[in-house]
Every structure is written in structure tokens, then in C-alpha cells.
Amino acid sequence: MGGKGTLVHVTGNNVDANTQLRIKGVAEAVKESGGKVELLQTITDIDTDLQTAQKAVSDLMAAKGGQITGIVATAYNPAVAAADVVKSSGSKAKVIAIDDDAKILSGIKQGTVTATVVQNPVGQAEIGIWALALLQTKQCTVRSPGVEVDSGSFVVTKANVAGYDTARQAKTAELKKEFADKILSCG
């Protein structure tokens, strides 16, 4: 959007605590623009399934598409729907998505999606299972219970779409080493 324009936020269930944090984050980012970005609308409760999200985003684009310069999607189905609808409608709206669905990654490669933020679910599972196995078999203990671990999030753009998963795998290896060296006590 170039730091200015009209933004729409499409997201998940309004009663969900994470959705509320995401709504707050988008509002703060808009406020930080000093009036250069206007939040036209936040659409919640459309993460039930892809069909619901596609209908909501299609209806939005039909009604207000000419006003929209950016769409930020902070839930999976709305993100896939935004990628689909912007591509099929020929809209020039910039899309920032979440997760790495094939349609979102394809949109990044084709230029209809600007970026997506992805997490590290394989790393979360791999490290979790590995650490639990060591704890369960009493090969290790936790040095200080209650440690928070960030498994990493990654911004994927056209520049790094081909190799972002390599960075994610490297983060997992780094976390495993951190667990072995600092979080677990094995002996």
C-alpha cells in the first residue's frame, strides 16, 4: 500500500482471544500511520470454513473493492479467500496473509499476494515430542520450569518464497540445540 490507503482486516472468531489481539494489533498499526491508512472495515467470524470466508471477501470486494488498497488477513480461511478473490477479481489490493497454504504461496509467486506470516508448526511438534520423550524416559529434567520458547515466525515474500522453509528448518535445529544446552538437564 506504500504506507497509505484504505485497509480491510479479515479474521477469525470475534470471541477468540487471539482474534482480539490481532484486531488490536491492526488498529495500532493503522494509528501509527498518522492518518495515512484508514481501516475501512474489520470482518470477523469468517474462519468457519473456506466457503464462508470466500463469500464474505467476494461480497466485500463487490461492494467496496474500488476503495480497498490493502487487505490484511489474520486467520487461515480468510487469508486463502483473500488470495483467491484478489486474484480472480483482478484487484490491485495488496494482500498480507497468514500461513503457507499453496494458494497463498502461489499468489506470492504471481504477485497477487504481497506477503504472508508463517509459523513453525513442524518445529513446534518436533521439539515438543523430542523433549517430552526425554522427560518421560527420565533421561532429562527441565532446569527451570515455566520457560517460554518462541518457535519462530517468518515473513514470506516474493524474495524468499523459494527458501523460507529452509530458514524454518534452521530455526528448529537452533531450538533443539537451545533446549539441549539451556533448558534441559540431561545426564
What can you see in these coordinates?
The structure is a single chain. This protein is α/β, with parallel strands linked by helices. It has two domains: 5-118, Response regulator (Rossmann fold), CATH 3.40.50.2300; 121-151 and 161-186, no CATH class. Helix content is 48%, strand content 19%. The protein is built from six helices and eight strands; from the N terminus they run βαβαβαβαβαββαβ. It has helices at residues 17-32, 50-64, 76-89, 102-110, 121-136, 164-183; strands at residues 5-10, 37-43, 70-73, 94-98, 115-118, 140-142, 154-156, 184-186. It has a six-stranded mixed sheet with strand order 2-1-3-4-5-7, with helices on both faces. The termini are far apart. The mean pLDDT is 96.
The major sheet is characterized as: 6 strands, mixed
**How many β-strands, per DSSP?**
8
Mean pLDDT: 96
Strand content: 15-25%
In helices, the fraction of residues equals 40-55%
Indicate the CATH class of the largest domain. Answer: Alpha Beta
CATH superfamily (homologous) name of the largest domain: Response regulator
Integer-rounded radius of gyration? 19 Å
Sketch the topology as an H/E string, one letter per element. EHEHEHEHEHEEHE
- Taking the alpha carbons of the first and last residues, their distance comes to 54 Å
Q: Could you name the ranges where pLDDT drops below 50 across 5 or more consecutive residues?
A: none
